[in-house]
Amino acid sequence: MHVVATAGHVDHGKSTLVRALTGMEPDRLEEERRRGLTIELGYAWTALPSGERVAFVDVPGHERFLGTMLAGVGPVPAVMFVVAADEGWMPQSEEHLVALRTLGVRHGLLAVTRADLADPAPALEDARDRLAEAGLGPMEALAVSGRTGEGLDGLRAALDRLVAALPAPDPHAPVRLWIDRAFSVRGSGTVVTGTLPAGRVEVGDELELDGEPVRVRALESLKEHVESVTGVARVALNLRGRIAPERGRALVTPGAWTTTDLADVRVTMEVGARGPLPARLTAHIGSASVPCEVRSLGAEAEGAAARLRLARPLPLHLGDTLLLRDPGRGHGELRVLARATVLDVRPPELRRRGAARERARGLADASADAASLLRTHLLLREGELVAMGCPPGGRPVAAGWHADPDHWSALSARLPEVVRRYAADHPLEPGMPVEAARHELGLPDRRLVAALVRPPLTVADGRISTTGRAPAGIAGLPAPVARAVRTLLDDLAGAPFQAPEAGRLTELGLGPRELAAAVRAGALLRVAEGVVLAPGADARAAALLARLPQPFTVSQARSALGTSRRVAVPLLEHLDRRGLTERVDEVHRRSV
Ligand SMILES: Nc1nc2c(ncn2[C@@H]2O[C@H](COP(=O)(O)OP(=O)(O)O)[C@@H](O)[C@H]2O)c(=O)[nH]1
Ligand SMILES: [Mg+2]
Predict the structure, then answer these.
(1) pLDDT (tens digit, 9 = 90+) per residue, 275-313?
(2) How far is Cα 63 from Cα 98, in angstroms, rounded to an integer?
(3) pLDDT > 70: what percent of the chain?
(4) Is the bond preceding 254 in cis, omega lying within 30 degrees of 0?
(5) pLDDT value for 312
(6) Which of 10, 15, 16 is the pocket-test mutation for ligand 1 (most atoms within 8 Å of CB)?
(7) Could you tell me the distance, in angstroms and rounded to a whole number, from the CA of residue 42 to the centre of ligand 2?
């Protein structure tokens, strides 16, 4: 299926043409038929000669209903531009043209109708020139009459060519269905309709509306029940959920969009619009029209950067186009003022002086992609990038995190220095806790810190330390600890295997942390928990034991070393581990 919107001045024959092509009545309201004026969006469809089906969204042409016109055209990829042969180009012809150009509609055809009332050639030539000048081309142009049916076969054939040339939308794209109608149907609950531009909706799908989950109970397309629909299509969804949908809201794939009321954009002024932009405008996208405040970030110039604060949040992606309109102007004045291209949906706060200008400079060469986003945000989760409409191209640096390459190498260069400084400030600790490094580097996730650790740094037990560095010795310890260790070593000089008792250690102020630091510094030898000797005591013990008759018992070893079982047992086990002694049986060992 294809969807085509109408455009053109009021009373130029848009609805009549849609009626003649489809045999359906696009003006559904009693008031519309009584006044002969389209007020609301109309919907009608038909099969083209090729068999392709085309649905029309018929828009009002009256200047009072520009908002409705934009809601109809917003999500639609192609347009049938209608000009009356007897009236020619008129103000809303121009206004609709500007709107289409701003929204970036590139596909369409020109129908000069009411050709039974006047020679269509002058209006056709004029309109074709204007459309081409606005960049909406190349477009086929035809003269027709909705009244006599003249030229309608040619128009059907031209519509076939138009839809055949439309780019095929991505069936896997995330869904964003802008609601253009919402109503209750007795017995089946809430129904919404809209133009699905891309992606796929299935019965049973869970979508989101303003952050609330909604379930698709049933699905219709062109009044037929279907199980699934792929865009482009007109769809009606029967929804279940605690929701109150209305025009301008969107049903979206959960997690696939960033719903935000703040966006940084590049503003492109419309031809004929004179800056500076008013501070209060209305932003249009899809079927939504939302008041917004515009804050210019740099100098007023073509392609200027601005920050939009929307009166209510919208689901947006980078690269989305918003049309900015001045709701206050009218009567011959240009109301569509600018296009805003979304460059960031989670813009950074601007607090410092000069931050706005700096941001404008950053946005000047920004594009709607992941690399550009990472230059601003430095680190983003894959899910965040997807929700911004920029799935990452490169590989994650850690567990689903993507980084700006420059930022990542800067972090990687900083970490060794941060760890070194921590070690200097905390000589009793066996390395820098990963959490402290995370905090110091301002990172959002500890796994990022772990990913930054490269030799000679290592992580063990949640701490980062430098390996391969020679122990600093006693001089590397804090002065009080060094003093206590020296006293201990004096004690041990006379009785090298009489490890100090717990009481003596406490008296000297050597707790577990201090002892561990002294051992790391190479100032003490740790034989077992709470059992420390002078460095090298193990080699001296091994030499003494080698002189004993082999094999020997613990008790023989104890008296040879002049110590107690408290020390002898763990010391022998330590020597076993170092390969200086070995067990012979349950009670005997020998020197190796
Ligand atoms: N003679 C003639 N009248 C037409 C033709 N198309 C539309 N009209 C008349 O023009 C008026 C406006 O048409 P309508 O389709 O409502 O215009 P819209 O506002 O563009 O939708 C109506 O009175 C129509 O009957 C046509 O091709 N020939
Ligand atoms: Mg109409």
Answers:
(1) 678 889 999 999 999 999 999 887 655 568 999 999 999
(2) 13
(3) 97
(4) no
(5) 96
(6) 16
(7) 8
CB atoms closer than 10 angstroms to residue 544: 15
Ligand 1 binding pocket includes 90 (Cβ within 6 Å): no
Whether 6 lines ligand 1, by a CB cut-off of 6 Å, is no
Decide whether any atom of ligand 1 lies within 6 Å of the 113 Cβ. Answer: yes
The crossing angle, in degrees rounded to 10, of helices 14-22 and 152-164 is 90
User: pLDDT tens digits for 35-47?
Assistant: 888 888 999 999 9
Report how far residue 419's alpha carbon sits from residue 321's, in angstroms, rounded to the nearest whole number: 47
Crossing angle of helices 512-520 and 479-494, in 10° steps, is 80
Structure tokens at 237: 């969804």
Please name the amino acid found at residue 540. Answer: R
Strand ranges in 336-489 using DSSP code E only, listed in sequence order? 336-344, 379-381, 401-403, 432-433, 457-460, 463-466
Q: What is the 8-class DSSP label of residue 49?
A: T
The mean of the pLDDT values for the chain is 90
Testing ligand 1's pocket by substitution, the residue of 9, 11, 28, 80 carrying the most ligand atoms inside 8 A of its CB is 11
User: Could you read off the pLDDT of 472-512 as tens digits, one per residue?
Assistant: 677 778 888 889 888 888 888 888 899 999 899 999 898 88
Ligand 1 centre distance from Cα of residue 66 (Å):
19
In this structure, the strands spanning 78-84 and 107-113 are parallel
The ligand placed nearest to the CA atom of residue 85 is 1
Pairing mode of beta strands 258-269, 304-316: antiparallel
Looking at the CA of 90, which ligand is closest? 1
